Amino acid sequence: MKNDFRLKYPLWMMAFIVLLAIIAYSLDSPVVEYVNNSNETSMEMTIEPAKGIVLLVSLVLYFTLLAIFLLQLKKYNRQNPTQKISAISIRPPEYLEQDEGMTYITRKAVQKVYTYITWALPILATIAIILPLSKLYIIYGILAVALGQYLIFYFEIRKHVKEETE
Amino acid sequence: MLKNRVKEMRARHSLTQSDLGKQVDVTRQTIAFIEKGEFSPSITLSLKLAKALQVDVNELFWLEGDEYNEK
Question: What stretches pass through the bilayer (chain A) (predicted)?
């Protein structure tokens, strides 16, 4: 159970979110000129050299992580043909619902996440309205909320799975 | 609050949580949650557990404060 891919799924998502934040930092508003008229349609993008390196490294890391993630997913699906996870499923694959006990702990974790989202989103919206924040900081705020939701879900499920004894 | 003696009965039958879980078609974790009193099983699962442990469901589960079972 402790090695169940669904338990580790939030950790994967957190890693992707962190990398996405780094990509957002290096790719912050790269379009410096955009022309769209009857004669011409063009766009000029500029990325600082240092940010370009960060972008390149983070993109390589992102796609490497994605490849490992998809391999792990394939391995899990091969080992669990009755509980397959789809990479493009609408339903969050981290839900553990193979029986009523697991459904119970999933419900508890989801309730905590829902409570968190109920508070985090209005707070984020209020901050974005009041403070003169750049687009990048608002993106960071959204990513932080997403990171927090996976963190809460992961620790809640882990707490229950870790506590159980043979 | 629902009390139970699943752990005691399981030990009497020399079953592990995994063994009992397989018999009633749930995970080992669910058996552990029930034993700790963290989770109250459904009537169906309670009946399955009682059958697997060869006891009456009233002997396996009771409400806190039930004098007969808490002796």
Answer: 12-32, 52-71, 113-131, 137-155
